[in-house]
């Protein structure tokens, strides 16, 4: 018994240590238009420094970056290229999208959530971006592909190198340019990547592992119909990964999509659509529905509220009573106002709200996001770069998932075992519409679960008649092994 207790303590220590180290990966932000900045979140406060590059990339809109586990900046991107901590190209880091797409957007990506870094073991990183490979380049055209590059930070004496370039993992699709976010898998190692598609609310799901990328299909929902224009928009997960939200600057009329998320199975459930209120501030020369152009979303850390960022207004939605609170409108005249943009949490737990195309030297901030109403303490233009350099703008915070989210036990996956493991369990034919046959060395019960983890059927036999079940994804579990199956 003592040995078991010691092992459990050691496992808990390893997991906690890993989570603490991962939490430093978002310690530094790279952002800014024209002049680039490094913002470091220290316990003593925020430090802003100029990023001294050979030229001035635009780290706004499509920007992303990541630190090592000690909180040192190692990689940053303007959406098309990957740079080191000094803003210089890493080896093979130049032009990581098709050249026609690169040139169409003048060598940097202003479209929100159009790049992201995912860390893996052995100092390896995925760099992911949507793109267009068909030459169908226009601002209202959807992307048709998703690509990734692999970066080995052990190469070149620790300076790093892109060892795999522009690998397509989804093609011939209708992917939105914006609305892409990742969430760590419950096993604490893999990542889920969710990507909105086309005009409809189709959400594609991909799983990134240490050495492979899996296309896990998609889920289709009736609403919202996003519309063709998607130059702005944001998807987010709650800090614990249990909830998902997405909004778009398009013809969605202020609608925001919400759902629960299963980090083990990658399944969205309990969908809901809410709509931004009207009657606040907007461009007096534009149609009144322009106030509903949603650009950003963020859950409060305690999951009690959702912040919806429009270009002229910021709203707080209370899940307890479905009420809206108007957090902020324009803080200057319409002509001078730079528009709100995507929002992300800093390492200090405060919510930072970016600016349209980085044309302002300040970002606004919500200091107490877990507090209802005015107590959330909206602080207009409180994040300031005025004391650093005269030129340039604050832009938008980098696109980052919650790197500090660790492992979480859930069925049917433990921390060290994944549902696609096939060494102990075989299920066939797959897919099927009639009978599933099970081959396993174990004599334990055979269990059938639906896609949200509900137990449907248990047997000791090696076959299950599935004719009565609806089409979809299911799981067969035998002891600690499980297999995904499709009933068609």
The radius of gyration computed from the alpha-carbon positions, rounded to a whole number of angstroms, is 23 Å
Specify the CATH architecture of the largest domain. 7 Propeller
CATH 4th-level superfamily of the largest domain: YVTN repeat-like/Quinoprotein amine dehydrogenase
| Parts with pLDDT < 50 across at least 5 consecutive residues | 1-21, 412-423
Average pLDDT score: 84
Share of β-strand residues: 35-45%
What form results from the Cα inertia axes? Answer: globular
Describe this structure in words.
The protein has 488 residues and is mainly beta. It folds into 2 domains: 22-384, Methylamine Dehydrogenase, Chain H; 425-487, Immunoglobulin-like, CATH 2.60.40. Helix content is 6%, strand content 41%. The strands form 9 sheets. It has a 4-stranded antiparallel β-sheet with strand order 7-8-9-10, with no helix packed on it. The protein has a 4-stranded antiparallel β-sheet with strand order 11-12-13-14, with no helix packed on it. The chain is globular and about 70 Å long. The model is unreliable at 1-21 and 412-423 (pLDDT under 50).
């Amino acid at each position: 018994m003592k040995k078991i207790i010691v092992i459990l303590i050691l496992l808990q220590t390893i997991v906690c240590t890993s989570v603490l180290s991962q939490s430093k990966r978002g310690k530094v932000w790279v952002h800014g238009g024209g002049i680039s900045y490094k913002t470091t979140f220290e316990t003593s406060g925020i430090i802003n420094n100029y990023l001294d590059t050979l030229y001035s990339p635009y780290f706004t809109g499509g920007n992303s970056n990541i630190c090592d586990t000690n909180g040192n900046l190692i990689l940053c991107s303007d959406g098309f290229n990957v740079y080191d901590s000094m803003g210089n190209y890493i080896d093979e880091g130049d032009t990581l999208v098709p050249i026609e797409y690169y040139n169409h957007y003048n060598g940097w990506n202003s479209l929100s959530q159009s790049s992201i870094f995912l860390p893996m073991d052995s100092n390896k990183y995925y760099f992911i971006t949507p793109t267009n490979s068909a030459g169908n380049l226009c601002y209202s055209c959807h992307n048709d592909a998703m690509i990734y590059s692999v970066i080995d930070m052990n190469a070149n004496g620790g300076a790093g190198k892109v060892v795999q370039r522009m690998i397509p993992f989804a093609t011939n699709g209708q992917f939105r340019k914006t609305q892409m976010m990742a969430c760590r898998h419950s096993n604490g190692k893999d990542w889920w990547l969710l990507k909105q598609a086309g005009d409809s609310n189709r959400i594609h799901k991909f799983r990134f592992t240490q050495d492979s990328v899996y296309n896990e299909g998609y889920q289709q929902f009736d609403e919202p119909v996003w519309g063709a224009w998607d130059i702005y928009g944001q998807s987010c997960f709650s800090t614990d990964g249990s909830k998902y939200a997405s909004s778009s600057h398009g013809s969605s009329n202020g609608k925001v999509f919400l759902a629960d998320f299963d980090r083990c199975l990658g399944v969205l459930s309990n969908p809901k659509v809410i709509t931004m209120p009207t009657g606040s501030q907007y461009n007096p020369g534009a149609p009144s529905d322009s106030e509903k152009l949603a650009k950003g979303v963020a859950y409060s850390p305690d999951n009690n509220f959702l912040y919806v960022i429009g270009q002229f207004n910021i709203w707080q939605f209370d899940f307890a009573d479905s009420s809206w609170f108007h957090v902020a409108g324009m803080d200057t005249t319409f002509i001078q106002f730079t528009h709100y943009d995507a929002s992300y949490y800093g390492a200090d737990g405060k919510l930072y709200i970016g600016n349209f195309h980085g044309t302002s030297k300040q970002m606004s901030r919500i200091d107490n996001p877990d507090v209802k109403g005015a107590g959330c303490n909206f602080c207009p233009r409180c994040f300031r770069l005025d004391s650093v350099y005269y030129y340039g703008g604050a832009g938008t915070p980098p696109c980052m998932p919650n790197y500090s989210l660790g492992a979480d036990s859930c069925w049917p996956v433990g921390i060290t075992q994944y549902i696609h493991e096939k060494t102990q369990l075989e299920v066939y034919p797959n897919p099927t519409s009639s009978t599933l046959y099970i081959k396993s060395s174990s004599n334990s019960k055979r269990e059938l679960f639906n896609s949200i983890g509900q137990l449907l059927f248990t047997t000791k036999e090696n076959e299950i008649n599935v004719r009565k079940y609806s089409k979809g994804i299911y799981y067969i579990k035998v002891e600690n092994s499980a297999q995904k199956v499709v009933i068609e």
